[in-house]
TrEMBL record:
Entry EC no(s): 1.5.1.3
Transmembrane annotation, as ranges: none
Catalytic activity: (6S)-5,6,7,8-tetrahydrofolate + NADP(+) = 7,8-dihydrofolate + NADPH + H(+)
Species whose genome carries this gene: Veillonella dispar ATCC 17748
A biological process from GO: one-carbon metabolic process
Name this polypeptide is given: Dihydrofolate reductase
Domain DHFR: 1-160
Family, per entry: Belongs to the dihydrofolate reductase family.
Keywords from the UniProt entry: NADP, One-carbon metabolism, Oxidoreductase
InterPro entries, A to Z: DHFR, DHFR-like_dom_sf, DHFR_dom
Organism ancestry: Bacteria, Bacillati, Bacillota, Negativicutes, Veillonellales
Function text: Key enzyme in folate metabolism. Catalyzes an essential reaction for de novo glycine and purine synthesis, and for DNA precursor synthesis.
GO molecular function: dihydrofolate reductase activity; NADP+ binding
């Protein structure tokens, strides 16, 4: 199963200056629950924005750079096709961004876990438009707004419709 997981602002913004903009612990918890124990697939820029390797997850990085020097244990792929093919045999692999890589993997994902954040942010990285008709909304769960999670948000699961 190949999924993508993303938090998207109301205006489709997902990041600025190669960092995340908002702090939403509920979403970080959701991300951790989903991805722990699985492969996470990311673009070279998102990889470089991580403060450290995320524990208990195998990191796959997409880059066109044939000389890319990755830390031990990190797998390198030079195309979304190659990574999607390798992920096909896994129980679950998660595409975790960023913008270029979400766009490149959209045709290959079966499931999308989209955290919709009800706020407009200024940013320079955007989640791509996608055909809502190609997916069924399987569940929508409202996140709890509190003093640590100040933006209204919901967790939406999209499942790709079977092709006819
Ligand atoms: N809100 C969220 O849930 C979320 C999640 C993740 C990231 N983000 C944000 O997204 C932003 C980063 O996104 P981004 O679009 O700038 O970068 P990105 O998608 O993380 O990485 C882009 C890089 O991936 C490689 N790449 C992309 N397409 C490729 C292809 N078809 N074949 C081979 N390699 C390919 C290239 O690496 P080379 O240049 O090395 O060839 C490219 O420069 C940051 O602001 C980050 O904070 C947000």
């Amino acid at each position: 199963m190949l999924a993508l997981i993303v938090a998207v602002a109301h205006n489709r913004v997902i990041g600025k200056d190669n960092t995340l903009i908002w702090h939403l612990p509920n979403d970080l918890k959701f991300f951790k629950e989903k991805t722990t124990g699985h492969v996470i697939i990311m673009g070279r820029k998102t990889f470089e924005s991580l403060p450290f390797l995320l524990p208990n997850r195998e990191h796959w990085v997409i880059t066109r750079d044939k000389g890319f020097d990755a830390p031990e244990g990190v797998k390198i792929f030079h195309s979304p096709e190659a990574a999607s093919e390798a992920a096909r045999v896994l129980d679950a692999a998660y595409v975790i961004g960023g913008a270029q890589v979400y766009e490149a993997f959209l045709p290959y994902v079966d499931t999308m876990y989209i955290t919709e954040v009800d706020h407009e942010f200024e940013g320079d990285a955007f989640f791509p438009e996608f055909s809502e008709e190609a997916f069924t909304i399987e569940s929508v769960v409202d996140g709890v707004v509190d003093e640590k999670n100040t933006y209204p948000h919901r967790f939406v699961t999209y499942r790709r419709k079977a092709s006819k």
